[in-house]
Batch of 2 targets.
Target 1
Amino acid sequence: TDAYIEIEADGNIILDSAADIVLEGTQLLSSLGAYALSASGANRPIFYLTNTADDATGPFLFLQNDRDGNGLSDNDVLGTIAFLGDDAAGNSETYGSIVGSVAEADDGNECGKIEIKVANDGTEINGITVGASSATSGEVDVILGTGLNSRTSVSGVISVAGASIVGNSAFTIANNSSNMTFDCPSNIEINADGGE
């Protein structure tokens, strides 16, 4: 027969076990606003999601903004994974985060955006932004770095499938270690509208 256990307390509820605490069921449901896991051991706490099904699938980690079922708007944040720690003075800082948000919420034209941020001079700034275009189907744009002094290093080969490499200002292509080779089965054109 169906049954349930309800525990009511005006203070803390403590489960203290020298071995594992096992919960069996289909779902663990809670309306708590926060969960805190802490441990004093090295490389702890550890959070595992393990799928034991005999198939090709794996577990999911969902971060969902439901807005009480009223629908979302452009730029609404869907979820954030933050990396926190103290600075040298003992102040709590956010050193990095991964933020998922809504770029376009219109029905049938939904587009998402993922931002990977890192702290710089105590303030988080975007390092990588991946966003789908609401104007063009099948277009996903990627922005690397923030500011003209940012540097993107690539180990290996860069393959460009498009027809052009476009710069918004003057830029330099340089190889500081050896010769540079441009290999093309057809013509290589360099067009300049200015001086040198």
Note: The radius of gyration is 25 Å.
Target 2
Amino acid sequence: CVVGQAPGTPLDEALLKPAQEERRRRKPTISRLLGLLGCKERIWISVALFALTLASVSAMALPVYTGELVGAVTSDSQFSDECRATPAALAACRRAKLIEILIVLGVVFSIGGVALAIAFWLFDQSGEMISRRLRARLFHSFMLQDIAFFDGSSTGELINRLSSDCTAIQSTLTQKVGEGAHQLILAAVGLTLMAR
């Protein structure tokens, strides 16, 4: 602070502004974007990521259970000696195995579908809350500007800032993160299953 001047005066703010801008410039974009998340959005996005993981794992069950379906139809070695005793007994055991696998697939895909719906709903709701908060902050910032600011900016430009810029940030923080996480989880689970 300059001697004889109270903190928060224009000179004090002018001295601090370059340091704040330098810190903001050095901060990575992802951490700046994640800093826009409120407590509620962080919780919702965490739950959405968990639900997305559950949905991705259930989606990867199809190749595993498809292999079991093919094995149940083509291979006799996985059945007990009682099932292999007669062709009728083998057919009954195969039918029971197929029904068991189909029930498991139905349950897994139902859980995965519900989890995916919940995940995308939570991402959408979080994005709307983020967008609403950003628009309110931006509008408040516009209202604090001097009249000269409005002389230099067109109405269309300001409206565009309120609508499209906030929507772009909303999309980045929710939809893009959700889609990226979904693909990463699918890849990780797929590679794990292939290595097994």
Note: The longest helix spans residues 87-143.
